[in-house]
Design a protein that fits this description.
The chain is of the alpha+beta class. It has 2 domains: 115 residues, Rossmann fold, CATH 3.40.50.10330; 151 residues, Tumour Suppressor Smad4 (Sandwich), CATH 2.60.200. Helices cover 32% and strands 34% of the residues. The strands form 3 sheets. Strands 1, 2, 3, 4, 5, 6, 8, 9, 15 and 18 form a 10-stranded mixed sheet that branches. Strands 14-13-10-7-16-17 form a 6-stranded antiparallel sheet, with helices on one face. α3 links the parallel β3 and β4.
Length: 291
Amino acid sequence: MRIRLIYNPMSKKAKSAYALFFELGIKKLEKNGENQVELVRTTAPLDATRLAREAVEQGMDMVVAVGGDGTLNEVINGVIGSNITVGLIPFGITNVFALEVGIPRDPFDAIDVLLEGRPRYIDVGKANGRYFVLMVGAGLDGVAVNNFPFKLKWVLGRLSYLFTGMYYYFTRYKPVKMEIIVDGKKYYGYQVMVNNVSIYGGKLKIAPKASIFDGLLDVCIFTRTGFFDDLRYVWSILNSNHYKWSDVLLMKAKKVSIKGDTYFHVDSEPMGKLPVDIEVVPHSVKVMLPR
């Protein structure tokens, strides 16, 4: 089996962990010569997409994202429409996709999934032409991601996005009422999340019934704003019962359009301001998952 590993040298854990992994992990993946393993590194944003596309064109059997959810997103965008198998060795801060599907955070245990796992076709989403694995967010989290100081990530880790969101909320954030069209029906809200997975930002369950296998996206709309409503929403999210409020709408959909004068992100990557048109692309990428 021919395998290409694509790694992100800017991953937070890269400096301390890559050296040991590349020395021992690749030998394990080669499986005493049964597999041919090629290691390549990204040098610029979206480089993993190009490298993954090359793997497809060269007829390789598997392309593995070695990094966080951002690296995985780029790899997915490079293989869409092909039959190559995608693997993941988590080296990011949060590793939402790995948490969602049960891929171990230990890179050597993750190699066991590559060697002994089960390939399955998963759904992805498409937002203004860019494919995503996790979610699209518009509102405060969109503002935070689009104005995020990257260096803060090295200091605070997964708390960096929370810190940025809180800073903007208490200093310059102005809630914007968005128009959301979900499979032809119109709604309004101040925060929107369109989810392909159930987990958001770690272990928060924004869309508890979301699945990468059901051919649908899960839309969560927060319809009110103001300090006390926002506080209620945050507290409810932390306790995983936000969906019980009548002013929080949770529904499944195939297509979603969002309009409004605010920012959005795709898999925690900044995408600028709305509008965005989103659709599900069912069973479109083959990924190696735990049995």
